[in-house]
Amino acid sequence: MIKTPFKTIGLIVRQDSDSHKDEIHTICQALSRHGDLLIHYLDNQITSNEYTQVSLEQLGQQADLAVSMGGDGTILRAARHLVDFGIPLFGINLGRLGFLADVTMAELEKHLSDIFNGNYSVEKRFLLQGDIHMKNSETIQHIALNDIILHSHQSISMIEFEVFTNNQLINKQRADGLIVSTPTGSTAYSLSGGGPIMHPSLDTIALVPICPHTLSNRPIVLPANQQIEIRLSQPDMVGQISLDGATQAIIKYGDCVLIKRYPKEITLLHPPNYDYFHILRAKLKWSNQP
């Protein structure tokens, strides 16, 4: 249930936005006309004396609406931090059209007016939870909106691993790695690896091998309620686990990675005329004639 009207707005700004001071000022002024404004700069590279600066946790606790300013990467980080607070997230793109941050500066005033008048599209996106169980009994837990990726610890090296779903062996692979992707992540690294584009409303995950040694090893789509287990097959191999593009853990033989759907979803707000296929056409150049 979305709490409306939005009385307290939290603005999340990417770390390198110092080059976008004018845009930040414009957005802050526009948002502050609609409610109390809180601001968080990712990695705390910038300070603001004009607006209340808070941590992401404080923003999640106090804001009725989170606004991400940057690009899709900023939304990914915001979603991971805010999903447990249940507040909706709205993305403003400072560059080109994004898959997630789909409002540009040129459209800002119109779409902000729509949002604060309750005229918007609502979309739920699920995340993945990755539990990394180390052989020494330590467990590391992270979440990802796009994907969880196993790849070699060495830059140019294949790894051998086994993949299970609900304790059933899917296959043993020798590849550069494996992408476990949500529908949100299906237009990211997974797409580059030959994975399928999955509509965001689908309750599915894709397992996409990265440069497999056996060419018959193809992507597979599974129900999102299944648990994926990954184990390295060789004692001398070392792998890395990355979540949404950031490396989070080193794994070795005997460690186990369990991946499942995270119990909470992030709510994304879009303009009322939001068209997923328009974004696909624009980003993937489907409209270009051969």
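[next item in queue]
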Amino acid sequence: MTMHCAQVREHGDLDQLLLEQVPIEQPSFGEVRVRLRASALNHLDLWVRKGVAGHRFPLPLIPGCDGAGVVEALGEGTDQKWLGRDVVLIPGLSCGLCGRCRDGDDMLCPEYGILGETRNGTCAETIIVAERQLLDRPEGISWEQAAALPLSALTAWSMLRKARLTAGDTLLVIAAGSGVGTMAIQLGQLLGARIIATGSSAAKRQLAEKLGATQTLDPADPDWWKEVKSHTDGQGADVIFENVGHSTFEGSLKALARGGRLVTCGATSGSQVTVELNRLFFKNQQIIGSTMGRRSDLTRLLRLQQQRKIEPVIDSTFSLKQIHSAHQRMESRQSCGKIVITPWKE
């Protein structure tokens, strides 16, 4: 038996994202096979295809971090309860045995990886994962919504937790139209923060306002950071949620309040930035790095989704056969929220 998948064999442009038919694998000990009903793109999928200087991906590789589906086969040593069950996949991979994992900080595991980055991911009809990567799909939540939540919500929640965001803080969300940005606004609201957001288009700024931002800014204005100051009586933002990098980082630091925390999870515009250390230590500011989050927090986030307190914003949906169009949509930077991939359609 075979399945359809998208696969990267060499880094490059869209022509290196290959639509192939490959054998369906059997799960080994402790593993299950999931028939995917939906998956979702993340910027990581573009990096997997294009390549990242100084980072080696295990090619050939099926990209895709997020997914939801039905367990259709069990390997030895797994619980029979999972067979036929609707599940959401935990995108983070860890050993489960080291001290970091036992303490609940699995994203600090020395063997940590992500589906679609360190092993085959969800841009396929089926996937083999460890049993410990499964969580029940929340009742009443569609396949598309279930698949769109994990990586962006887990990343956003972990960032806000590390930045110690509390009620009454001013939170500045950079790139509010991204999947992780839309989640940051919703989670920031739940925590009682006042939210300012940047968006590169009118549609993205309107979306940010709809989600709860009280002010929105255009980062194309070189003085956008001054608007943050003016909206905060000259103080600046207590917490800045960064995921863009080079093009916004300097402005973000200028917009940061005394004692403020800038937390970053990405560098979609480039990773080389300039930091004026005098400003950083004189103002008692912090720069915090963050990747993914605790697997235990994903259970909490799925519960919030079931309670309709958070909801992934879905920009568009493509079938697996249309994966090139989905990548083009993400690269255009016109998307607002998540791009979802559904099963292969002839």
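[queue empty]
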